[in-house]
Amino acid sequence: MKKTALRTVIASVVFGLASFGAAASDTGRANNPSAVLEAADTGVRSYTLQDESTLYVFKDGKMAMENRFGRPLSMADGHPMETVNGQTVVMKGNELWRLQEIHAIHRGG
Fold first, then answer.
1. How far, in Å, CA of 100 to CA of 96, rounded?
2. Which of 15, 58, 92, 104 is deepest in the core (most CB within 10 A)?
3. For the segment 62-106, what is each residue's pLDDT rounded down to a tens digit?
4. DSSP 8-state class, residue 89
5. 49: closest CA among 27, 73, 28, 25?
6. CATH number of 32-107: 2.40.10.300, 2.30.110.10, 3.90.1150.10, 2.40.128.120?
């Protein structure tokens, strides 16, 4: 009887997570803080760079970066970067802490 109950619980969790993942992917915002920021109308713009990393530009003009896996990345002030459409952007500020806060909020922590 214990095995049956355990299987039922495991099946419920697995199917519950699968439906949650489907719902999150339907919204297009699963694990995508940039979509959340832009949808919240925070004034934060994001740009995809040629190496698939993302550059965030905040209202005050300062910037933060995350690598292509979504992890915050430190970048030296004044470093030139190129967007996927060929535009060159020079790094201003290194607002790593802001991006870490955004990720913490996005994760629910």
1. 6
2. 58
3. 999 999 998 889 999 999 999 999 999 999 998 888 888 877 877
4. E
5. 73
6. 2.40.10.300
